[in-house]
Amino acid sequence: MKLATWNVNSLTVRLPQVLAWLAAQAEAGAAIDVLALQETKTTDDKFPQAEIEAAGYQVAFFGQKTYNGVALLSKAPALDVVKNIPGFADNMARVISGTVASLNGNIRIIGAYFPNGQAPGTDKFEYKMSWLRALRDWVREELAVHPQLVLMGDYNVTFDDLDVWDPVGMHEQIHCTTEERTHLRALVNLGLHDSLRMFEQPPKSYSWWDYREMAFRRNRGLRIDHILVSEALKDRAQSCVIDKLPRKNERPSDHTPVVLTLAD
DNA sequence: ATGGCCATCGCGGATGGA
User: Fold this and answer.
1) Catalytic residues of A, which ones?
2) Residue A211 CB closer than 7 angstroms to strand B?
């Protein structure tokens, strides 16, 4: 079973790349079973549902105009879909969750687009901290109900300096502050595992590169897209990789997919 | 020394991203 997350930075622009990537994955061996998308940047009435269904996927989506927007594509239907964090009032479309069946029981999937946070000391940073607290309180409850749980998406937070191309230059900068990393660590301490680090990775593995300064070619990036798995799923994880190929496309997203393979 | 890109909205240039 393969699960993936990808911040597409506009699904309107990137839909052909998403469909081509899904087809290539299937061609290469095993099809993606669940794909969480972030920054679809489209309202639900304009969401390309028919095109995605024609490609053999069910889809649940939750968007808004211009900003944010998330979706869950899945081979099997996602059940009990929930949008955003229950009890946390938010006018931004950032989270979509659903339950998918696997041969070893149901898996609760949470796809999330964490706030950017702009810079420490700003209102947006405070919003990010409130959002992270609310997410953690909710995920704690979700884990109690759904032992098999995956939390994946664009976290907009690095775990540590291994996730940063320039740790000195980015010291205590947005995505790299102690405060953000403390929140991420607290999330992990609920009983989640950073699936990428469960496996040997190439040095300087990143999931996002700035469009400017030829950052991708120079591998000046950040690892801010993560797949966290619950304790009950940990032993089923067989591999986790960052697929850099889509970042080489014409008109790429600035993020590239992260792919987790679970034993069936 | 600074900013250098891209998407959106909408038709110029501001805003947000990270």
Assistant:
1) 113, 154
2) yes
